[in-house]
Every structure is written in structure tokens, then in C-alpha cells.
Amino acid sequence: MIAALVVALLAATGASLALGAVKVPIAEVLDIILGKGGTGPNHQIVEALRLPRTVEALAVGAALGVAGAILQGALANPLASPDVIGVTGGAGFGAILILIAFPASVALVPVAALFFGLLAAALVFGFAWSGRNRGSTGKIVLAGIAMLSLFTAGTTGLLASFPERAPSALFFIAGGLTNAGWEGLKTTWPYFAAGGLLAAFLIRPLDRLALGDDVAASLGSRPQLIRLGAGVSAALLAAAAAAVAGLLGFLGLVVPHVVRMAGGTSNQAFVVPTSALGGAALLAAADTLARTVRAPIELPVGPFMVVLGVPVFLWLLRKAV
Amino acid sequence: MSRARLSTLAVGLAVVALTVALLAPVGAGAEKRRQRIVALTPFAANTLAKLGVTPIAVGQTLGGRERLSPKVSHVPILKLSHPMGPNLEQLTALRPSLVLSSKTWAKGNVAMEQLGIRVETRDPRSISGALADTYKIGEAVGRKHAARELLKRMRTRIAAAGSGVRRHPKVMLILGVGHAPFTFLPNSWGGSLIRAAGGELVTGGASSRSGFERISDEVVVAENPDIIIAVPHADPEDIPALVRYLKDDPAWSSTKAAKKGRVYVSIDNSLLQAGTDIARTITKLRENYLHN
């Protein structure tokens, strides 16, 4: 299973670098990637456009896969995804606010998406950890849904108030990678790194939590703290992903299920890394399709990811049930 | 009946027939002129103003900056929003007999027709379409002659504005802000103007019914435009920041346009939405951006 995912990832990465709206011979692509030469437009296309975009696709796909995997594990809820802790709604609102109301500050779109994504998650955790049953799964999910609704209403209000400005926001909402060079990753890499590290530390505790809160507590774990850690990790990863590639909620929801069903195990030591590999491969492949299928027109990647992911998911679901 | 009486009757009938024949078309024209017209697009409102017709209301999008003729500046405004366009209760209260609308408000147009209002969509996306719609508006409001005269003047001015082109620079015209802007295609209003001004539109061969598409930055690098003009939604004070942002865009920084400082931001709607001052817009395009 892991070998198959590695092969898929390598194939998707190769395709992402080799294919685009402008035909660049594969030998020349390799030379450029390996720093052996090449000048002119082709060099710029591969080095400044395709390479950063491929790295972004891999980072965002892996981040969303991991975020979904640890949230589903922490909340013991198969429907958990970054949407559930409000991150997607908050990031969407932040980006649309800048794109529509402050177009001169368009360079701040990733920062605003990151800020509002994390703010939404902080509000969810703040409410979920207050009052009775603090830190319970039900409270986290309900607070997340409320926050998602709140920020989605704000986004819809902005779009309805300025309909003629909506085209600028469309791509972000549909989810898509752009050719922003290394700019997006320069801002967000610390969040990807922190979220990823935290997720790696949570792999064992999440396996204990899968046994139930009581058993986990008897083994010396602190279920609420694990859930909070998982929430923070997922929020960092999902907010950074949204800052780079817009709203791609589907990936975080489906990829962990696919690897669980295909691998026949819910062990987090398996699910978290394979979700990262699967998410990265799926997004890189879908992005390559999105920018080549109607080239030179670029389409949002979200629908392609669904087209690629849903048949596999349904096939596995049928087998599992 | 005496012969004298018969001839008097014949003359009388002839006079009546002649009067009816003479007055009938005038009556239809007068009826058209008495119409209560609402113009939902700036093109329709300004065309009416040029034909000497005052609409009972004009449309204005929320946050929009429609360029309306001073002749209609006193006319009540109907705010437009998706998906219907005007508020149908407000529109109905105005008792319009004709609404000059846009395809943008397709859903609202159907609802208006269900309310018994005559609706004509007059929001052209090309210069030839604008000329055709000018005549159709004249016809709809009983000002055919004025429309013909207006068309003559427009054609002469457009021809003069587009004459003497010395260079045909490659122009990329983009809509919106951010790293995923839409490119104007030849079947858009802006695309039509660029070609009339002597520019060669950079589209990578893309086509779309809407007239706009997001094209690959790889194509932009390969086609290397001489000029990039952005049409964002912004205020005048935003222009320097937007120009900087566009010039520094990693995908475009190597283009001739960015290197030679020929990245421009146009914040009025003249390249986005059909207007009646077509010749003036072409002249401004050539003088301010194309330099050809």
C-alpha cells in the first residue's frame, strides 16, 4: 500500500513538472530541474512556474490529508475534516474580505486567510473548552459548525454586496493553485512545519484515544489535551493550506477514509503518513489535470479532485460495507 | 343623390382616409415616445440620453461606478443586485412599459416579463453589437431617425479614432485582482476595443462564450505581452499598489510589459462595460496605454 502510494506520488509529481499549457520536452524539463542548463521562456516556465506550483500541491495535499486524519482520529467522527473546526470558513472569509473590500492589499490574501482560519479555530476551541462537558467531541463539532456557518454567512454577505467583484473570489472559493512562485510557501511554511510536527507527536496518543477516553486515561493519556493538540495541529495545517490554495475541504475528508479502507487498518502510525502521501499525490494529479485538460484555460482544481477521488472512495466504500 | 353631393362625399372620404394614413404612424411613434422606460445598463441609459429620451429610472449595481450621461443624472436610481437585478416591487411601482436590461439579470428579466413588462436586453459586448443595439434602442423608443444620425456620427468618430495605427503591440487585458485573474477574450467588450485600437490581444487561443477565461501563466510567459492592462475593482488611490503587485507577479515579471514598465491599471468601467463614447475610449486606449 505504501509502495503504491509512493509510486503514485512520484508519477503525479513527474506529470506536474512535465505537463502544462506550453509543451516543454521532458529532457529539457529534467535538465532545468537538475540545474544543467536551459534558458529563455522554457526555463522560466519550469523553474519559476511549475516547480513552485508542484511543491505547493504536494505540501497542501499532504497537509490536508494529515489534518483530516488526525481530526477524524481525535473526534472519533468519520465526518470530521478542517471544515468541522471552522478553519475553512474562517480562511475563506479572510481571503474574500481582502479580495473584495481591500483590493489594493491583495498581497495580504494568504496572511488574511491564515489569520481568520486560525481565529475561527481558536473561537471553536474557546467555546468548546468552556462551560460543562468542556472538550467533548460533541461540543467541538457543534461549535465548529456554528463558526463555519458564521464565517460562511460573512463571506456570502460580502459576495452579495459586491456582485461585480465576485469573479476575483471565485477561484479561491472553488480551490485552486496559482503561479505565485514561492510567495505562498514563504509565508506559510512555519505553519505547515509546526502543524506537521505536532501531528507526528500525536500519532501514539491518538491510537490510545481510539480505545476510548476511559481506557486512554487509565493508560496515562489526557484525552482533552490530545483533542486540543489535534485541533491545533489541524488548524495550523488547514489554515496554511487554505492560504496557499483556497478552499479544498473534500481532500481532508476523503483521503484518510480511502487509506483506512485500502489499508484495512485505523492505526494512526499508518493512517497519518499514508494520508499525507495520498493527499499530496491526489492534489498534484488533480492540479495537472486542471491546468492541462482545457489548456491554455486554467480550471479550479477542486472539481477535478472530486472527480478523481470520489470513484475510488465509492469503490472502496462498497467493498468495505 | 345629386352629382354634387356625391363628389362632396368622395372628397370627404378621401380627406378622412388621407388624415388616417398620415396620422397612423405618427400615432404609433408618439405612443412609443410616451413609453415609461427603465434603463438598467449604462449603455442603454446613455444611448437614450443621446436620442433625447429621458428614462424614468436607471440601474446602478451595488458599489458600481457606472458612467452615466449628465442628462440622466437627475433620474431616479434603481439599485441592482444578483440574481434578479432591480427590486421587482420597486420596479413595478414605477409602472414601466419597457425595460432595457442585460443578460446579467436573465432571471430578473423572466420575472419582469411575467409581470407584463416588455423587456429588451441591450448590453452589447462588441463595437458592432453596440452600433446594432443603438439602432434597436432608437427603434424601440420611436427615434429611428435620431438613431440613424447618431450611428453616422459614431461610425465616423470610431473610424477616425482607429486610423493611423503605426504599431500593433501585444496586449493582455485582465479582469480582477489576485494571482488568478481572468483574461479578456476577443468576444468581450474590452477585447473588441483593444483590437479597434490596433492592439493584438494575448489569449493563448482560448475561447469562451462568456468572453473571459483564466489562462495559463505559461502561455503569458511564452507569448510575452508588450502591455498588460488590469481592470480591477479598486479606487484611484489603489492604483500604485496594484501596479506594483502586478509587475512583481512571479509569473509576469519577465514579460516585456513588466520589464519596460508598461503594466497599467484602469479602474473606470470603460473597458469592462459597453459605453456610448466608443471613439473616445479607443483614443484614450491608444494615447494612455498602447502608444501606437
List keywords for this structure.
heterodimer; A: 321 residues; mainly alpha; ABC transporter involved in vitamin B12 uptake, BtuC; 0% strand; globular; B: 292 residues; alpha/beta; 6-stranded mixed sheet; 11 helices; 44% helix; elongated
Summarize the structure.
The complex is a heterodimer of chains A (321) and B (292). Chain A is mainly α.
Notes on the structure:
The complex is a heterodimer of chains A (321) and B (292). Chain A has 321 residues and is mainly alpha-helical. Chain A has one domain: ABC transporter involved in vitamin B12 uptake, BtuC, CATH 1.10.3470. In chain A, 77% of the residues lie in helices and 0% in strands. Chain A contains 13 helices and no strands. In chain A, helix 4 runs antiparallel to helix 7, helix 11 (249-263) packs across helix 12 (268-292) and helix 12 packs across helix 13 (301-320). The two termini of chain A are 20 Å apart. Chain B has 292 residues and is α/β, with parallel strands linked by helices. Chain B folds into 2 domains: 37-161, 3-Layer(aba) Sandwich (Rossmann fold); 170-290, Rossmann fold (3-Layer(aba) Sandwich), CATH 3.40.50.1980. In chain B, the strands form 2 sheets. Chain B has a 6-stranded mixed β-sheet, sandwiched between helices. In chain B, strands 7, 8, 9, 10, 11 and 12 form a 6-stranded mixed β-sheet that branches. The relative contact order of chain B is 0.12. Chains A and B meet through helix 3 and helix 7 of A and strand 10, helix 8 and helix 9 of B.
Write the layout of secondary structure elements.
The complex is a heterodimer of chains A (321) and B (292).
Chain A: H1 2-18, H2 26-33, H3 40-75, H4 87-101, H5 109-128, H6 137-161, H7 166-174, H8 183-209, H9 213-218, H10 223-245, H11 249-263, H12 268-292, H13 301-320
Chain B: H1 3-33, E1 37-39, H2 42-50, E2 57-61, E3 77-81, E4 85-86, H3 88-93, E5 98-101, H4 106-114, E6 118-121, H5 127-140, H6 144-161, E7 170-175, E8 182-184, H7 189-196, E9 200-201, E10 212-213, H8 217-223, E11 227-231, H9 239-247, H10 256-259, E12 263-265, H11 278-290
Parallel strand pairs in B: 1-2, 1-5, 2-3, 5-6, 7-9, 7-11, 11-12
Antiparallel strand pairs in B: 3-4, 7-8, 8-10
Helix pairs in contact in B: 2-5, 5-6, 6-11
